[in-house]
Each structure stands twice: as C-alpha cells, then as structure tokens.
Amino acid sequence: MPMHTCTTAQQAGTAAREVAIVMEAATSFSRGVLAGVSQWMARQSGWFVRLDDRERQAPIPNWLLRWSGDGIISGLPERALPAPWRGGRRPVIHVRPRLPADQLPGIYPDDDAAVRLAVSHFVEHGLRQFGVVPGASGMAGRCETVVRHAEGAGCVVDVFAPPRAGIRLRRSSEPTQQALAAWLAGLRKPVGIVAADDVQALQILEVCREQGLLVPDEVAVAVIGDDDALCDLATPALTSVTHDRARIGREAARLLDEAMRAGKPLSAVLLVPPAGIMVRRSSDVLAVEDPDIRRAIKLIKARGCTDLSAEEVATTVGVSRRLLDRKFQRVMGRTIRDELQRTKITEAKRLLVETDHKLLTVSVRAGFTDAAQLCHVFKTAVGMSPMQYRKAHQPCREITIGTSPKRR
Description:
Blueprint: E1 3-6, H1 8-11, E2 17-23, H2 28-43, E3 47-53, H3 62-66, E4 71-74, E5 92-95, E6 106-109, H4 111-124, E7 129-132, H5 140-152, E8 156-159, H6 174-186, E9 191-195, H7 198-211, E10 219-225, H8 228-233, E11 239-242, H9 245-262, E12 269-272, E13 276-278, H10 291-303, H11 310-317, H12 321-332, H13 336-354, H14 359-365, H15 371-382, H16 386-393, E14 397-399
Parallel strand pairs: 2-3, 2-4, 4-5, 5-6, 6-12, 7-8, 7-9, 9-10, 10-11
Antiparallel strand pairs: 1-3, 11-13, 12-14
Helix pairs in contact: 2-9, 4-5, 6-7, 10-11, 10-13, 13-14, 13-16
C-alpha cells in the first residue's frame, strides 16, 4: 500500500497537486532525499504525496498504472515508471546517487566535486601516492575522475587490474581478493585509496587487516559514500565525502513544483556539490617523516584558526623559524605562514558554504582579525571575494544533457 502525505493546502480543503515519489525508501540516499522533500513541503503548500516504496526490479504497482497525478520524483530507472511518464512527456524529476549514463533530466550529486574533495584531503595530509580500484561498470567514471584529479595534483596513481576485466569485488571471489592483497602489498607506502563505493571500501579494509597493512598509517582509505552507518561501523571508521542528500530532495521538490506550474517537464541535469568530507580514522594520517613538520602541522591543525603565528609554531616545535620554514618548503611545498593562511581560508570556505553567517562572524571564526582582512586575503588566494565564493558554491551546477560533467 502506498503511503500518503498531505500539505496545508489539502488540509485546508483547497486543491492540491498530486505527486508520487517512486524510490527504494530503505536506502540511506533515499531517506536523505525524502527528508529534503519533507523540509520543502513544510515551507510550502499544495501537494498531496503518495510514496511508492519498491526495489528496482519490482513490478509497477496497479495504483500507479492507473494514477493520473501531476508529477513524479523518481529514484528508480525510467523503465520503472508507467509508459505515459517516460521520455520527458510529463513532469518527472529523477534523483540518483550517481548521474546515470542516459543523463535523465533531474538532480544528482556532483561526483567530480566529491572526488576532488577526497583527493585534496589526501594531498593536504602529505600523500603523493594513490591507488585506485575500479568498481562496477557504472562506477568506471568515478575511477577515471580519481586518476585525473590525483595526477593533476602531481601524484603517482596505480590502478588495480582485477583477474577478469569489469569484475566487481566480492567476498566469494577468492582470486580477486588474492590479487587485491598482492596489489596492496606491492604499493609504495604510504598510499591513499579513494574507494568507488562503500562495499568496495569495506573489502579493502578487510584485505588490509588480513595482510597486516596498517590503516591509515600505510594505507589511508576514503570513500565517496552513501551510507554513513556503514562508514561508522567499519574498522577503522571510514572517511567519507557525503552527498548533500537533503538538499537534493529540496531541490527536486522545488524543480518539480516549478515544472508542474509551468505545465512542462524538466529538460536539464543539475549537479549538487557534496555536503563536505567526514574525516574518520581510516584517513587520519600525516604522511610526513620529519618529526618537526609533524608537530608543526598538528599544532596548526589544532590552533590554526586562532592568532597562532609562524614564530609561535617554531618556538613550540623547538627549532628556528628559518629552519622550520626550509623544511616546510621542501616537504610540503609551502611555508608555515602559507599553511596557517591555508587553514584559515579552508575554514572560511566551509563557513561560507555551510552556514549563513555574516562576513564578520565568518572572519572571526576562521581566525582573521576582521572582515576586511578576510576579504583581502581570500580574494588574493582564491581569486574571488568571499561573497562571490558563497554565491558560486551554493547553487546547483547545471550541465547540458548529452555532455560530460567531469571536467571543470
């Protein structure tokens, strides 16, 4: 039986638009999307919702075949919809954890931005060696994106070649597990691995444990993850780039409402940037051998968004400022002052995108003296003002259907 939800318009007795939400509601991605739709509905009026909760392979229910509503939000393949709702003939917004190959009009996570965030996380922790394990056929693009961003950052990338092309890692595939173990053992350490999905990441952790490889000291692992529960249950807990699922739900509801009002279907693909990266134990590594640099980076990580100075860092570490700067420049490619500034700018970026704080509040929390200093430093480093950055990173990214969303 479908589940029903009504908004204030229906409760008040006025005409409401009938909307069906078609998806496998048990997945963490779907639950996040549903939460976002619910948030949008709480601020709006005029929808009567029926939830069709079913798996991808399940037949179309009779009620949906007979249904003559106004619009659909779908998390399933287009073939899972009744014929009149396929081919862009009526208002349908597609939502998936990944942009499908057929690029159905809808709203999806920006996979390129998510991979870039994961790669940057490893690079900022000193990793210059990357490993990539191809996933299922639908994940091939993600593997290629990891290689592109890692090589673009000047890193060396080694791609795992499974015994049979196109194979997906499974516990029952003993030859593949053995080949993966041999590959991991042969990689130059320390190495960072951006897993294609949660299942693959868990299997990589399992192989590391069986082979006695230390995570994260020898093998750091991060995943473009859809399931926070799986990441928390992993041993060690998995670092994940999190999709902004609730925002995808809100945007899907908004776009569907606009399409129904206009009387025509959506004809674009919108990509939502990731909510951020949840750093857990699997990537909590500092791939730097020099103990002075390690101590300095830990201090900057803890107090970088305060009035901490380069001189104070050197004094705390117990070496001269000049010597520490030389070491920093040689190993990290930047000075202590650069690292302090980078830390503050990173925090300012996070606050600009994730909060609606005023500029003065952002500047103080990020460790700047005032908004003027933030604006000057930010524009010099980033190439745009803080408010321009906020505006550029909050909206969804739109691509033309039939084009590649990868390169930015």
